[in-house]
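User: Can you fold this complex?
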Amino acid sequence: MTARRLDAAELELGGGLEVLLVAALEGLAPGGRIEVVSPSRATALELHGWARRAGHRTVGELMPDGGPYAVVVERGPTARVLADPIGPRREPPPLRAGGEFHSADLRDGEPAPGVAGAQRGFTPVRAVAELGAPSFHWALNDRDALWADDVAELAEQATRAQWDASRDVPWAAARDLPDHMERAVAQVMTFIAQNEYAALYVPAAFLPHVNPAYAEVVMWLAGHIHDEARHIEVFTKRALIGGYAGQALASTELSLKTLLEERDFSGAALLLNVLGEGTFLDLLAFVEHHAPDAATRAAAHLAHRDEVRHVHFGISHVRRRMAGDPDQRASLVAAAERRAEKLVEMSGLSPLLGEGLTIMAAGSLQPAELAEGARAVRDLMQTMEDNRIRRLQAAGFDLATSTHLSELHTPNLM
Amino acid sequence: MSRATAEVRVGCVAYHPRIVTIWESFLEHFEARSVPTDYILYSNYERQVSALLAGDIDIAWNTNTAFVAAEQQLGGEARILGMRDLDAEFATVIVTRRGETFEDAAALAGRKLALGSRDSGHAAILPLHYLREQGLDAESACELVRFDTDLGKHGDTGDSELRVVRAVADGRADAGALGEPTLAALRGERVPAVADLEVSWRSPTYYHCNFTALPSLDDGVAQRWFDALLAMSYDDPGQRQAMDLEGVKRWLPGDRTGYSALAAAMAAGAPET
Ligand SMILES: [Fe+2]
Ligand SMILES: [Fe+2]
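Assistant: Here's the predicted assembly.
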């Protein structure tokens, strides 16, 4: 058999020669040979050991005094990696305007797999998995139970919309509010921060069970979790910046704990994203509108921007899920009913929250303004209900069901 | 089936915790091939050889030194039930610092030569033997710098060889002997100590480890165990990890042709005390 000649020139093993050797040997069938020529006797002597370790063998050498030296390496029978070949180079994924590579184009038009093997590992999109990896046991292996048609684009937007709760809020503006106002704001901010924890823990509990085949969902959930971390941060900071703190209410804890108990991804999307975060959109808009200072306004504004995305995902997912599987409608209603049963003893908005919002809307403790503030809070409750029903309809429920679900929703708002 | 009643008992020396990983995997393979096997760990090859001779184990996974010692004590020929592809073409190399290579063994006279554990065939006994064959009695002509770590494990841990290359790299020795696969591994793992070392000398190839059995082992059992061993496949994803840990890509039949140099060296008095 003739051997292809490979000129090692000044390259040594451990100094780059091994890369050339691997590339040359990979191109050969088992039994194929290359003749490695080196001016270094030391390198020639060392090739034998290298070849054996790499699964090949040496089948001859020429070691004339003064060199150059030649060693013939024969490719061994074993594959270095127990995986199917990579396949030929293909048309790369498209770029969008400005040269952007969007996550929605990762799969180049092919849909994500409908079902993914529960055992598969962390195999990136289109990568070829090596055999012999340890088995995983993912619980969420069904695309339709996780997917939203725009999930990749939403994850993309989440990345683009990042902000900094330390720097992007004019904190100094909230330093010197009057006592009564600061106490009210601190209580409202504490309430919101409490709820932001649940908004983080719910997606975080699903994330480690999502099959890695659904990279877009993993990226989306990670972004969601990161957003909520910032919400916890910004509202905790706002609660503290004026020197007060608020009370973390037990009724809120009770409501949030039942949210964490929802184990179905779509059920959680309905309860958290559509109903809870949806209701919070109206709350945050209210806080932004009535904020007594620029810091509170900025915090509510920035969080609201993120919540729009979270609510959008929920609506998009629930609508797709019910369209693909009509039985889901009943399961989702049952999830809301189950939660409501656990919350039967809760009634109405917490007085502390209601009072805090009223003072914020009033702007002072003057009777006329307080009456105005109380009316604004009543209007807010109505707006929340109207919008909840509208969002539920957008998610694919009929009006009667939407109204029913909205009525079941927790008085805690989330 | 309880392993306590396994048909074949294999002894191996626990030179590293990975031995357990390796043999737990190998045992599944033998079980699947209907040759129920168990392994028994020893902390040194001397005890393992005694256990083989005493019939406490049926097969010993031996270094070349342990195999030759077993035959010497047996006063006859042991049965060899296979070896790794690696064992069939083992060699020792001598490394020197960059720019200080030599071509003729005689150049080592008067220099400091580092050796691994004195009971290691590849890192001590055989380099001395082959240098002697090439006309250099290193024990008298060189200043030997010995690293007798892990005695009883015949160099398996690689610890003494790591000390050898470090001694050469930092100038405590001028040259150092180690197993060729050890150097390839250190190079592959980009260990800094070997970065500026070059190979000056390579020994003839010889055999290294083997599965040693007594001549009295039942032929049928021996054959079935041997067949199962050789059926192990590096292309089987369930077996690759253990085979990688054991440094084997393919099991080969063994014979005694590759042990004559070591037998001669050990008969001549080595390992010295
Ligand atoms: Fe949030
Ligand atoms: Fe959110």
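The first strand of chain B starts at residue 8 and ends at 13. The domain at 8-87+208-268 of chain B is CATH 3.40.190.10 (D-Maltodextrin-Binding Protein; domain 2).
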